[in-house]
Fold:
Amino acid sequence: MPKFLLVFIFISMNASVANELDNSLLLMCENLKKCAIERMNDNHKVTYEAKLMLKATFNKKCILIEKKFAQEMIMFPQHNKKALACISSLALSSCEDLLHYRDNIKCNDYDELIKGNEIGH
Structure:
């Protein structure tokens, strides 16, 4: 996670939550990259160059995901535990489960809370 985001997170939440967020996001992103490469390997022979390109693309996507969660956790600190539960579940999910994100109850609960807060904001 970019260090400037950590500064904002540390200001808004305690250090243990920020550290858990950082670690969970890293694990989640690594899991997403691993599963994407596995999925591509199932369908095609993936070259080394394609894997590098895919990893770079996921690194950019992960930065956006990190920013999204960090911003939401700052805006809606009452939902930080649900956010961490969602991120942690994605980090530990099997590749098959990641394909069916909508079935992830922890993330569905969090998404609904955030949508409700955004409407009321």
The mean pLDDT is 80.
